Amino acid sequence: SAAPDPRLRFNAALRVMDPDVYAVQRGSPTTASDILRWCQESTAGYPELQNAPWRLSSRVSSAWLNGVGFCALVHAHRPALIDWAAVRLPATGERLSKEDSRKNLELATKAGRGRLEIPDSRNLPASDLLASRFDQQQTQKVLQYLSLLKRLLTSHASRRAAQLEAEEEGAPQPRAGATDAIPIANAGDTFLSIGP
């Protein structure tokens, strides 16, 4: 008999491990709109981004390629991971240069590879995104990365790490909208009690 197709095994594993990414791969519009809504809510505390094209759109567009959105999402949830002053913002009505976009994307992926522990195979290489025309394949890559960020940044472990980082002296605090509505504990979480 023929050997089973390894792609079927991978898709089955992906459906269990990362249902949002699986749904994005299958083209689920509900999942895409949920992810984009989360992006908008998470970055609500950034007045300088209120008119950013990626915040105003209900679709993934090439506006994500300047890297500002990815940096804002990481900074909103884990401000200690990205120095917001290092993020290059476009002037009103202007576009960022490819060099500034590349630097923003590298800043976001460096944070992803570091404390968020996103494997290189799941990161968005700036050179790939900026080298080609924004098409359906690019849209899928951006949505998959946003889905991964959402899962990692809203996990209990990430919220706890953000809380510990915020307690460090002089640490930047999360922006309003990013963690205000996210409880530190979820119903059903198990805690170990030590002592009397």
Q: What would you say about this model in short?
A:
The chain has 9 helices and no strands. The protein has helices at 6-17, 19-25, 29-42, 53-56, 68-77, 98-113, 126-131, 136-153, 156-167. Helix 1 packs across helix 2, helix 2 packs antiparallel against helix 8 (136-153) and helix 5 runs parallel beside helix 6 (98-113).
Give a quick set of tags describing it.
disordered C terminus; mainly alpha; 196 residues
Would you mind describing this structure in some detail?
This protein is an all-alpha fold and 196 residues long. The chain contains nine helices and no strands. It has helices spanning 6-17, 19-25, 29-42, 53-56, 68-77, 98-113, 126-131, 136-153, 156-167. Helix 2 (19-25) runs antiparallel to helix 8 and helix 5 (68-77) packs parallel to helix 6. It is globular. Residues 8-17 and 179-196 have low confidence and may be disordered.
